[in-house]
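Components:
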Amino acid sequence: MLPVERREEDFGDKLGYARAFAPALLDPDRAAPSSVSGPNGKAARKRYNVYRNNVTVSLINALAATFPATRRITGPDFFRAMARFHVRATPPTSPLLFEYGRDFPEFIERYEYARSMPWLADVSRIERAWLDAYHAADAEPLAPQALASIAAERLSDTVVTPHSATRIVRSCFPAVTIFAANRSDGPVGRIEATEPEDALVTRPHLAVIVRRLPAGGAVFLTCLIAGEPLGAAAAAALAKSPEFDLPANIAGMLAAGAFTAIHQGR
Amino acid sequence: MNEVATRPNSSASGTPRFPAHPFVGLAGTSLKHEHLPAILADGTQAGFFEVHAENYMGAGGPPHDVLTRMRRDHPLSLHGVCMSIGGSQPLDKAHLGRFKALVDRYEPALVSEHLAWATHATTFFNDLLPLPYTQATFARVADHIDEVQERIGRPILLENPSTYVIFPESTISETDFIRGLVRRTGCGLLLDVNNVFVSTANHGCSALSYLADFPLEHVGEIHLAGHAEQADDEGDLLLIDSHDRPVAAAVWKLFDMVIGRCGPIPTLVEWDSDIPEWPVLKAEAASAQAILDRHAHSLMLGKAHAAR
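Structure:
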């Protein structure tokens, strides 16, 4: 049998140590807690700062590991300063650090020193989606010929199940090109792209794949992921982008391994 | 070898999915994915690997693929970093469930956690934070260990912390606190020799006295790691448990002494920051293995003499 859970209050203030110790960890303006000291009455300012430093630096490092292209674009010093603001304002709430940084793209969008890089937030969104895909549940993607067996008249009713790794990131900037150029260790040349680029992030097997979607592709796939049938998704894509090419988009989504199953609607 | 219950109860875990590799008297290293190509190119080695449980709590993908392959060929140590066993608030039930799922899935030879806390209210601080040693914290920590062991169906090894501050409110010594937890919960211990060196130096005590007072007969695993040097407010030496360099000579000496006293205990070299090329970490593990082997050999000779 598990012991009966005792509440913190049952101990009076004897368990208040964490409540006293925690607040200054992420707040450099607060003094070290008076509940701790060095041995023989020695001071604890620098000693407490070891914990402060561990917390802040390890969380900045966690963001740097999740957002390597973002860091490469800004340079390490800029990134650390930006990440430090974010870590202090929005520390993690889960012990799983690969879940941390979901709010970082929006923070970057509002970060005043990053305003000259308006594409930076979208690059970080692709990186966040990349890590989601990396840790997503394994599943066998649809075979490239999976839709071939469906009669043409039933195709528009067809509904597909997204792979748990599949993510769409839309951008008004050439975010996929900038992401790809900065994600590797190789030299980054001058980026000529200026067009908006939407990203499809998938992980059909072990490797995460980021590809640029063709015109209308993001609307089409977003509808499919939301559970709409192929016909309605294609109509929505065509309405936004007259050049939307249905066969090419279906071939592309199957090649990317974005979906795992087919159902006949209604 | 100490008698510490480190193997899972086979009826609790059902049919094993992986081989039960022997791990008694072995040295091992932290598993870093950047070392994988070099480790695989080295061929099958005798050592064991330790992973931080939280890095494998995602649903799927490369982490589980790597861990499955490594577990097939090596003994595995599952080392939890974020359970907040030393925290004042109730354990995170979802996190405990994830921890149990990993224990069930990978059937690790060793399972350990820390005498520390990392989460308070809703914030996860990603560090091993200290607690005072009082009757109240003892009761709370013992309840937490009971809860973890009950949930995963086997005893854990509890690791002694490295600390930089003390709590004047403490009424129990760290070694008495730890000994009491072993007695009350049946847990085993993970003795981090570098943590002993760091904490005792930081608090002006003797590492030898600490070890003399430590319940060594319950140690099921040893950790070794490198530490850095800073200064405290008075300008005195303050050691930092940095895991970013080779094990210090003084820590090797303490380790040698502990193994001489306890016999060969599975020993892990940790390296978590400024991670070197694989051969450097491998050589650290080889140094630990040499000390383990030397004492295993003299233990055997001693038994042979006694049998005559």
